[in-house]
């Protein structure tokens, strides 16, 4: 039986999505293939040492009072998490038996890193910063 475009109305759409995802992931040793049964599997970015960007989610919430960074770190023990901040970038380093995470999160505005507080519960890391005070003017004499 000859394959007709009417049999697969979304075939062109899926091919274009595959092309764009493969282009976006180039250099990451991944290859998206929607034709395989069950969707992406081994060799498609779900292996170990992929860190953030593969299957970890990071959210940044910026309000008047605080900047909140929420990151999913599944399978990581609290003792295996290191956090550093220079006021503009939050660095999250973490490891589990199967993964290494090393993420640099650009914050939406300067924060006071000395007021930071962090909690980790059930694989979810939450770091809260106070915004940095506006810089004071410098008088020229």
TrEMBL record:
Biased composition annotated in UniProt, kind: Gly residues: 38-50
Organism phylogeny: Archaea, Methanobacteriati, Methanobacteriota, Stenosarchaea group, Halobacteria
Keywords, in A-Z order: Stress response
Domain named SHSP: residues: 49-141
Entry-linked PROSITE patterns: SHSP (PS01031)
Glycoprotein is among the record's keywords: no
Region of interest called Disordered, as start-end residue ranges on this chain: 27-59
UniProt cross-references to SUPFAM superfamilies, sorted A to Z: HSP20-like chaperones (SSF49764)
Name of the molecule in the record: Heat shock protein Hsp20
InterPro entries: A-crystallin/Hsp20_dom, ArsA_HSP20-like, HSP20-like_chaperone
Family: Belongs to the small heat shock protein (HSP20) family.
